[in-house]
Amino acid sequence: MRRNETLLEMLLELQVLDRVPRMGYVLRGVPDAESITEHSWHVGFLVWALGGRIEGLDRLRALEIALVHDLAEVRTGDLPRVAKRYFAAGTQEAAEREVVDELLGPLGERAGELMAEYRAAETLEARLVKACDKLQLMIKVAAYERWGAGWLSEFWDNPENFPDLGIDVVRELFDELRAEHGH
Amino acid sequence: MRRNETLLEMLLELQVLDRVPRMGYVLRGVPDAESITEHSWHVGFLVWALGGRIEGLDRLRALEIALVHDLAEVRTGDLPRVAKRYFAAGTQEAAEREVVDELLGPLGERAGELMAEYRAAETLEARLVKACDKLQLMIKVAAYERWGAGWLSEFWDNPENFPDLGIDVVRELFDELRAEHGH
Amino acid sequence: MRRNETLLEMLLELQVLDRVPRMGYVLRGVPDAESITEHSWHVGFLVWALGGRIEGLDRLRALEIALVHDLAEVRTGDLPRVAKRYFAAGTQEAAEREVVDELLGPLGERAGELMAEYRAAETLEARLVKACDKLQLMIKVAAYERWGAGWLSEFWDNPENFPDLGIDVVRELFDELRAEHGH
Amino acid sequence: MRRNETLLEMLLELQVLDRVPRMGYVLRGVPDAESITEHSWHVGFLVWALGGRIEGLDRLRALEIALVHDLAEVRTGDLPRVAKRYFAAGTQEAAEREVVDELLGPLGERAGELMAEYRAAETLEARLVKACDKLQLMIKVAAYERWGAGWLSEFWDNPENFPDLGIDVVRELFDELRAEHGH
Amino acid sequence: MRRNETLLEMLLELQVLDRVPRMGYVLRGVPDAESITEHSWHVGFLVWALGGRIEGLDRLRALEIALVHDLAEVRTGDLPRVAKRYFAAGTQEAAEREVVDELLGPLGERAGELMAEYRAAETLEARLVKACDKLQLMIKVAAYERWGAGWLSEFWDNPENFPDLGIDVVRELFDELRAEHGH
Amino acid sequence: MRRNETLLEMLLELQVLDRVPRMGYVLRGVPDAESITEHSWHVGFLVWALGGRIEGLDRLRALEIALVHDLAEVRTGDLPRVAKRYFAAGTQEAAEREVVDELLGPLGERAGELMAEYRAAETLEARLVKACDKLQLMIKVAAYERWGAGWLSEFWDNPENFPDLGIDVVRELFDELRAEHGH
Fold first, then answer.
1. Residues of C with Cβ-Cβ distance to D7 under 8 angstroms
2. Which of A82, A135, C144, F171 is 20–30 Å from B6 (CA)?
3. Do E149 and C146 make contact, defined as CB atoms within 8 angstroms?
4. CB neighbour list of residue A152: distance below 8 Å, 6 or more residues apart
5. E107, exposed or middle or buried, with CB in 10 Å at 0-12, 13-18, 19+?
6. CB spacing of E41 vs F38 below 8 angstroms
7. For residues C106 and C10, what is the distance between their CA atoms, to the nearest angstrom?
8. pLDDT tens digits, residue range D124-159?
9. ipTM of this predicted complex?
C-alpha cells in the first residue's frame, strides 16, 4: 500500500473499513459480525451519551479519540487479543505510527496524537474511550445473544472486558449489564 | 416497539442499526451495502477532517449532529429518496420527534434538538453535516465503482448529490471527486 | 429514477426486488432476512394452497393481487410498520399510484387497479391476500425461531399479526400456528 | 426427511426455499445469487405480464404451473444443467413424483399434476412457463452484468437459453434482450 | 461448460468450489453454510490427524482421496442425500467419470482413479475417507449448534451419519461426539 | 482461549477457520472473500497437482505442510502483510509456537515441526508450499477479476507475489498466469 497524497484518496481508502469484521465475534461463529466502522460509531455514541454526566471532561477531545482509535485497522485488519502476544514491547507503537503516517498523512499530526493519547490511557478522555471500547464490546455480545448467538460465554468470564477505569457511570452500566444479561 | 425506559435498553436496541442497509445502494445491486451505522461514522469523520479548515465552526456541536442525524432509522429503516414523496408537509418532523422520544428518551431532550437543527439546515454546523451527508454518499459511490459495481451512474447525474451549502472545503472536494471519479 | 418506457426495462428493474430485505426481520437481528420477492411468492403460494377451500373466490384475481401487492417496494424499500406513522391520510395512496405509474407503466392500468383493490381490502380476494400477508409473516417468524433466531417474541405478542378477516381456513391456520409455535 | 402430515408443517418447510441458491449463477461467481423462491416469483410475474397478450391462454392454470414448477428443489437443491446428465431416462420423473408426494402431500394431487404438465411441455400454459423460465434466466443475467458481474458470457452463447416455444411475445422479448444486452 | 485444456484454466475453474454451499446445512436454515472446499479441507485434516493411529494405512493415498473426493461438485453443485434417489444404478458413476474427464483432464487419469476408489469404499484408505466424510459432517453440526443453530436434530437421529467402517479411532470419536454433543 | 485438552475439542474449534476471511481481499473490496480453510485446500490441491512433476519431492510431507501452514490463524485471524511490520524479529515464531501448542496440543509435536519447516523455507517441500501459497493467491486474484472485482491491480504489481523459489513448474504457471490474466 502507498502513502495517501490527497485527502480524497485517503477518504476513499477509509471506505473499506466497513468490510473489516471484528475478529473476536467471527472466531466465535457470529454471522454478519460488526465492522470496525460500526464499532467505532458505537464507541463514539457511548462517549457522547455518557459524557454529559462526567465532570471535567473535554467532550470534543473524547469524541475525537473515539473517532480515530481503531483507524489503523483499515490497513492491518482487526487483531484479536491473542494475536497481540506477538508484539515485542514498543513495536506496536512504532508500527502504528508508521501506518497512521502513511494512511492519514493528509490530516497532519492530529490523528497520531489522539491515537497516542488513547494508547497511553492516562487522560480522563482516553480512559473514557478505553472503557467504552469494552462497554460497547459487551453490549454487542448481549445483543448477539439476544438475536440467537450461542458461543459467547467466554466474553462474560473475562474480567478484562469490564474495566471501569475509575469512571462511575461506566461502572454502573457494566453492573447493570452483568445483572441483566450476564451468564 | 416500546419506549426505552433505561439507557442500557436503548443502547442494546441501537446495536441493530448495523443491520440496516442504505437502500439507495441496495436498489442499485451493490452487494454488502453500507449500514446506517457505517454511513454515520463516515459523516462524522468527514465533519472532523474538514472542520479544522472552517472558520467559526463549533466542532463539538457539528460532531454531535453527525452522530445522531440518522438515528431514527433504527426504527424506520432507511427510506430512499423516492419514498419521501410519501410524506405530507410536516408529517415527517412530527413522526421523527415521536420516534426519537420513544427511542432516545433516556437521553432527554438533547438528541431531538440536534436532529431538529439538522433538519432546519440553517446553522453552519447543520449545513456542514448536510453537505457531508452527500459528500460521503458520493465518495462511497466512487469506492463501490472502484471495487466493481456497475449500475451507479445515476448518482453522478443527479445535481442534488453535490450540495456545497456555501462551504468552500466541501465544494473543493466535490469538484475533485467529479474530476477524478465522475462519469 | 425514471419512468420505464419498455416492458424489458421494467423487467430488468424488478430483478432488484430480490435485494430488498423485509425490514421487520432485519430490525430484529435475523441474518439473511427474506426479500420482498420471497415474501411475495410465499403469499401467492398460500393464496393458492388455501384458495381451493374458499367458496366463491376468484382464484385468478386473488393470485394477481398477491403477485403485485408489494411491488412498489422496488422503489421505496420495505417500510416497517412504525414508519407508516409518517404518512398523513391519503398520501400513501397518492404516492403509491405515482410509483406504480412510473415503474409499471408498460403494463397499463391493471397493476394499479389490483393494488388499489388490495389497499381497500373489501373484496374477498383482497381480504384473503391481506390475511395471507400476515399469515406468511408469522409462519416465517416460526421458521426463523426454529432455525435459531432469538428476538422475535414481539411478533407473537401483537394481535394485529393474526387477522383472519372473516376467512375460516385462515383462522384455523393461525390457531394451529399459535398452539404449536407461539410463545 | 419426513412426509409432511399437516398443511402447516409443509408451509414451514417451504420457507427454506429462500435459502436455496440458483447454482448456475453461483458457479459463475455471482455474489448473493437469486434463490429458487425469487426465480419462481419472477417467472410467475412474467407469465402474468405476458399472459394478457396470448390468445387462448388459461391464465390461472399458467400461474399455478409457474408457482409450483421448481418446488421439488426445497428437498433436492437446485441442480445445474450439467448435473442432469446423471439421470437415466424416466428416473427424474419417478423421483420428482416421490418428492412431491412427501413434501406436498397435504395439498393432494393438484401440485403433482401441474408439475407433470410442466415437464411434458405440451399445453400452451406449460410452454409459456417453460419459455418464461429461460426468459427470466436471461433477464437476470443481464441484470447481474449491469450490476458488475463479469463471467456470464457463456449464458449468452447457449442457444438453449432462448426458447420461444412458438409464443410470439416471448420471441420478441428474447430478440430485444439480445439486441440491447447480449454479447 | 467446456473441457479444460490447460492446467491453469482448470485451476481457475476450481476457485468457484468455494461458492458451492453444502446443501444439507442450507436446507436446515444455517446461515453462511460451509463450502465444498471447506468440507474437503476438514476431511483431509481429519484423515491426517487420525491417520497416524491406524496401522497399515497409506497416508499419502488417503490424503489424495480426501483432496479429490468431492471435486465433481464444482460442476454439479452439492446434491443433498435425497436427490440421490434420482440416480438409476450406474448412472452416477458414468456421469461422474465424464465430469472428471472434462474438468480435470489436464491431470490425466489419477483423479478419476482416486474417485473410483472412494466410491468403491473397499480399501482401508477409501474407508477412512468415507468415515471422515461423515465424522466431519457431525462435528460441523455440533459446531453450528454451539454457535446458535436450532434445526439440526435430524442429523443426530440418522444412524447413517455415524459409520465407523471398522476403524477404531473413528468409532471412538463418534462415541465421544454423541456423548458430549448429541441430542 | 483455553488449551484444547481433547482431539474432539480441537476439531470443533477448527471449524471456525471457515469464518476467517483472507484480509488482503477484504481490504480490496471483494465480497464473500475466501476463507483460510479454502485457501489451505487450494494450496494443498496445487501441491498435489504439481507434485508429480517435481523430482525428489516427498509428496506426503509437502501435503502435510500445506494442510497446517495457516492453522494458527484460527486463533489470530489473518494478518495482512502490512501488519507483519509489527513483529520484532523472532517474536512471531515464539508466539506461533505458543498458539500451536495450545490449539493443537492433542496432536503432539508433529504440527509444530511442519510449521517450523514451512517458516524456514529451506527444504524442497517447504519451498513448494511457500511458492504455491502465492500461486494460489494470484490464481484467486485472476478469478475475482473474472467474476467482476475491480481494485486488485496492486497484487499484480508486487513482485513478491510471484516467487518460484527455484521450482520450474511453478515458474511456468506464474508466467502463463501473467501472460493471460496479468495487467
1. 49, 173
2. C144
3. no
4. A28, A30, A141, A144, A145
5. middle
6. yes
7. 7
8. 999 999 999 999 999 999 999 999 999 999 999 999
9. 0.96
